[in-house]
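Dear support,

I submitted the protein below through the web form. The confirmation email said the job was done, but the results page showed an empty box. After a refresh the structure appeared. I'm attaching both so you can tell me whether what I see now is the final result or a partial one.
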Amino acid sequence: MKMFNLLNIGERAGSGIPSIYYVWTNQHWETPVLKERFVPERTVLLLPLKRVPITNADKKTPKTLRQKEVILRWMK
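What the results page shows now:
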């Protein structure tokens, strides 16, 4: 973190971590793993590039769900 701060491409607030989790989720990659190690003292963020299988439930948008409700009402 100190290295990135010295290069003016990072900040100490840790605001980038939620962004990384968000991007990884949207790309359907496995969840990042944050580990703390004490000897030597460091924080490690593992970023797996393995994709998580996408189910049909993941693909349903609010618009799709509304359309489904309309179709089911018409069918009744």
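Response: this is the final, complete result; the empty box was a page-load delay. The helical segments are 2-6, 16-26, 62-75.
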